[in-house]
Amino acid sequence: MLGLLVSHGSPTILIEDLPWKKELRELGEKIRREYEPDLVVVLSPHFMNWGEDNLIEAGEKLKCIQDYYGFPEELYRYCYEMPNDVEVVEKLSTFLRKDYKWGLDHGGWIPLYYMFPEGGIKGVTISISNRSPEEHYRLGVKIGVGLSLRFHKFVFILSSSCPLFPSPCRLRELNHSLQGHGEFHWAPSSPSHCSSSS
C-alpha cells in the first residue's frame, strides 16, 4: 500500500498557473511507472457523515460532484469521474455502510484530475464521520489489511485543503506530532524514510 496526504486546495487552482499541478502530474506519473496501482482509495474531507458510520460509495461509477458555488463559470467546465470497484465495495461493506448518493467531490477529483489524467484505474471513496481521530486511524488500518489480502498495489489518498505538497514527509506541517507531544497521539512514529529536514 502507498499512502499519500494530498492537498486539493481551492477550486480556483483549476484555472491558475501553479507549480502544484506540475508536481501532482509528476507524482502520478511516478506512481504509474514505479508502483502500477490496481486501485485508488480516496478519503475527502467533503464526504462527511455526521453520524457514527463511515460510508462507502456503492454506485457503479464515482461521478463528478462540483460541490463548490459562486466561483467563475470556467471552473464548472472541469470534471473527473472514475469507475467504482464494486467488488471492493462489497468486501469493505462488512464494516462500512453503503451509500448511493455521493461520488467524487472536488476534494477527491481535483487531485486525481492531475495525477491520473488518462484514467484507466478504478477507485473507491470512503467518508469520514463523527468518530475520533483514533477510531479513524484504526479504521484505516483495517481497510489497509482488508485490501492487502486482494491487492498487492493500491494507493490510499487522503485529501486535505491544507496547503501541503503531496509528500508524506510534510505531515509535520499539520502540527500533528508523531513524537507523542502534540494535538494527536495515535501515530506511533514518523515514517522511517523521513528525516527531520524534509
Task: Explain how this protein is built.
By secondary structure, the protein is of the alpha/beta class. It contains four helices and eight strands, in the order βαββββαβαβαβ. A four-stranded parallel sheet has the order 1-8-2-7, with helices on both faces. It has a two-stranded parallel sheet with strand order 3-6. Helix 1 packs across helix 3. The longest helix has 16 residues. The chain is globular. The chain starts with a strand and ends in a 38-residue tail after the last strand. The C terminus is likely disordered.
Task: Quickly list its features.
25% helix; single chain; 4-stranded parallel sheet; 198 residues; 4 helices; two-stranded parallel ribbon; alpha/beta; disordered C terminus
Write the layout of secondary structure elements.
Blueprint: E1 2-7, H1 19-34, E2 39-48, E3 55-57, E4 61-62, E5 82-83, H2 86-92, E6 97-99, H3 106-115, E7 122-128, H4 133-148, E8 154-160
Parallel strand pairs: 1-8, 2-7, 2-8, 3-6
Antiparallel strand pairs: 4-5
Helix pairs in contact: 1-3
Radius of gyration of CA atoms, rounded to a whole number: 16 Å
Instruction: Note the overall shape.
Output: globular
The proportion of strand residues reads 15-25%
Distinct helical segment count: 4
Q: What would you call the structural class?
A: alpha/beta
Placed side by side, the strands forming the largest sheet appear as: 1-8-2-7
Order of helices and strands: EHEEEEHEHEHE
